[in-house]
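Lab notebook, bench 4. We co-purified these components, and the gel suggests they stay together. Before we commit to crystallization screens, I want a quick structural picture of the whole thing.
Request: model the full complex, all chains together.
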Amino acid sequence: MEPNHEPSSDSYAADIASIRRAQVRIEPFAHKTPVLTSKTLDSISGRKLYFKCECFQKGGAFKFRGACNAVFSLDDDQATKGVVTHSSGNHAAALALAANLRGIPAYIVIPKNAPKCKVENVKRYGGQVIWSEPSMESREEIANKVLNDTGAVLIHPYNDGCIISGQGTISLELLEQASEIDTLIVPISGGGLISGVALAAKAINPGILILAAEPLGADDAFQSKINGRITKLSEVNTIADGLRAFLGDLTWPIVRDLVDDVIVVDDDEILQAMRLCYEILKIAVEPSGAIGLAAVLSDSFKKNPSYCECNNIGIVISGGNVDLGVLWNLRGRDPR
Amino acid sequence: MEPNHEPSSDSYAADIASIRRAQVRIEPFAHKTPVLTSKTLDSISGRKLYFKCECFQKGGAFKFRGACNAVFSLDDDQATKGVVTHSSGNHAAALALAANLRGIPAYIVIPKNAPKCKVENVKRYGGQVIWSEPSMESREEIANKVLNDTGAVLIHPYNDGCIISGQGTISLELLEQASEIDTLIVPISGGGLISGVALAAKAINPGILILAAEPLGADDAFQSKINGRITKLSEVNTIADGLRAFLGDLTWPIVRDLVDDVIVVDDDEILQAMRLCYEILKIAVEPSGAIGLAAVLSDSFKKNPSYCECNNIGIVISGGNVDLGVLWNLRGRDPR
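Here is the predicted assembly.
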């Protein structure tokens, strides 16, 4: 059994070796997700795009990779008492599913304002839902109470070496599926996904460009990169409910060193990208999942110095857990 | 160059040999579409389900397979004058795209009530749209006028050996992707899709069960099988805009002989299946495309004599060209 923060040669919380071990560990459980392409979107963007569709991952999002790696990294004594987390949704469902597969309890603290479909996923996978107020303080307080009551292990949604390693398996798959990729665009929130993806991708191809896609209303990573330190925001406001978290002390060093730039897009650009995912790619994508496409189509990307270096762009479609109502909002913004 | 109605050993309009030739012909152009599975839907249906996702085919529907085979079967002299068809949508877009790939004109007669997204697909692929009234008489009259004016070749949406052969390539792929499949559920309208799928599947595995899925408001295949002859309806009424055509003289003998049964479902069952495709499978599916899932979940299937013989069911998700408004209808039928 490895500690959750396994040591690495770079002093990061994960490395290519821990990511390769994660791949072996989760392989019996996780889907190898398909890569979709579209001549229409290539034509719109002026680039060749490869969509790594984690909306087809178990639980409907990439989060299952990290959660599965974390749960199956626990030794039997730890595992018996179960796992606990507080999450806005996809990590919660993923952890419930992974715990279910191992046959251990999952205690999931969920803020009352979480999207209904995400809460239903947690219940469907056998997780025990414990409600909190929306604030991070309330979520942490309730999670700590559960920890004390049960002796379960806290599995943080992103600030955790096993989680980062699990998410990094995306790069191992994607760069095998489309080795011509020279750029990856990855949603950024707490940084677990992009940290794993960047560590693995740069180990395989040191010249690969890693771009983060971040909503304007929660652009803490953009600010952090400018300021050279973790910068939290006093409030966040974006439709992308999966991208409201801030960088952690384990993800920040990786984001600082390995993420080449952050592309910031607004909610309208995200909604337009959701529509294109639906109408052109034929996939159900949550707002957070569509942000990579929003970024590649944005004016700010076209003005970015890296724009001319990108030819074959891998875009991580991070998840597809979306209430139908969000699509109605899309429709309401367009008279057709 | 083969004639469009190539002779076959069975005196059907196509056979396994013509389908294998079609596979070679379209391979440089068509996507090999992924097969999705879902433990949740397996659990709801009580069967192991394999979804062959033709919504990810070029043009957003299986129709590209047949259209591509037909267009690339033309000799150069024929091809130069272009192709013409009248279609409610997906065949039209597919033919426009295939013609575009060969660099020849495509004249597309479209009824004025066709879904907007399907018309846009035709235009996007460079097809020349010619409007008709919704009636079949008007569509045929206008198509004949175009034929006379241009000398183009009429490519019928389904009553055509090359079209049937192209659609049959789905079985070649699917039974390689999931050889354990013992049953196929396939949407039926004019019968081009299910004819090709049945011919190829029964050639590979004579014991495989072929079930058609048909909307209650356009159940001409169900009636035809009962009556032992092509039975047209005086009117059709279903949300599944791709399933309103009647069997043709080339598809009927194949449907009569090789389709084991027809499962009839109503529009509410189709809408519910669309919702499940969206929320569980994370794919955008048009009503016609969701009917296979509707069938496998229907009470009439559970009462069907073949129900107990089915364990591993391949479901052809025929297309994903859907206006967002249809999803709003879904939402309107459920208060959540």
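Residues 161-177 of chain A form the longest helix (17 residues). Worth comparing against the SEC data before the next meeting. Strands of chain A lie at 35-36, 48-53, 83-86, 106-111, 128-132, 153-154, 183-187, 209-215, 261-265, 312-317.
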